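User: Predict structure, ligand pyridoxal-5'-phosphate.
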Amino acid sequence: MKTHKPADQIQDLQYFGEFGGVNPSISDSSTYTFLSAKTMFDTFEGNAEGCYLYSRHSTPSNLYLGQALAAMENSEAANVTASGMGAITSVLLQLCQSGDEIVSSRTIYGGTYAFMKNFLPKLNIQTQFVDITKIDKVEASITENTKVIYCETISNPLLEIADIQELAKLSKKHNLKLVVDNTFSPFIVSPIDLGADVVIHSLTKFINGSSDAVGGVICGTQEFIDDLRNVNNGACMLLGPTMDSLRSASILKNLRTLHIRMKQHSKNAEYLAQAFQKDGLKVVYPGLENHSGHLAMKNLYNAEYGFGGMMTIDVGSLDKANALMELMQMKNLGYLAVSLGFYKTLFSAPGTSTSSEIPVEEQKEMGLSDGLIRFSIGLDNDIERTYQKMKECMIELNIL
Ligand SMILES: *Cc1c(COP(=O)(O)O)cnc(C)c1O
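Assistant: Predicted complex:
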């Protein structure tokens, strides 16, 4: 389903610094001068293209990063935010008002789940959580109040694949907005090309890739991005999830190597998934033929980037999972840490960490078991060597 080349589109953008620098200058200012009072008025009204007003609204550095991410997602425009949650909450609050409903995948990032489940009802916005892989169930949950279908391309932490093309057809049929969190699969899947209306990323993960920054982005139509920044009623303007210019400049530099990193994350994860499956472990990885979303993924993905860097292994019990993670950390195979997309492998037990917002009974129902370990596979140069060392840990703990 390759309709554009995201890495090439980013590469074709060219920015220079103020003194001919090869990186754009950082705009280290919160406010901007105007030569005429009239232009200031026009800028407030949103009618002065290319003028900056105040940095909560926009900054040159944030616009550069936004442009590059819009090129990556093939969207008309993008707005960067201070975090992934800043992007998610702003989008949902912009699209929904009191009385509206959301139909959401039930396997989503814990923070997003908590926001929909615990926070939005305070504003009389209700969410129906569904198995997003069952299109008929999704459709059955749509009511006359539904405004948004929400999903993650590759879901956290169960790695279910949302069939974005089918969901897009459904959302068009019912006049809804399809909002896709593409954090696990930058470059791998291009949701806008497949019919999504809005794409969100946590830049904190693969896109920045060095676990030193928090950030987010919203990609969508120029009209939607303008709405978000509107001084009178825009969520990004009024809720204040503004990214700092110094940070957006640093994330833009890391974005330059994302295509290379994604290929290596995918290559390493695929190797480990295949090998551990052969060893008889319960491995979940979208690149495995027995994965429930394998065919859907092959329909959606940009093949050169593989099936992503995320993998889970169920080792049977929480005690075993904890022992294995501690031993792997001791052997320097990775870190026992939440988050993902780092050069080093990161692992955590989602039931007791990143998905702990989800009640235990609901975790069971969706197949999130106690012994599940979520791996974000790193950029290891020799993955065969890593595999052997991980295997030694598993043998020592009677997991293999
Ligand atoms: C981490 C994450 C988020 C939240 O992003 P922050 O930058 O931590 O606010 C949202 N969605 C997914 C899939 C994530 O992994």
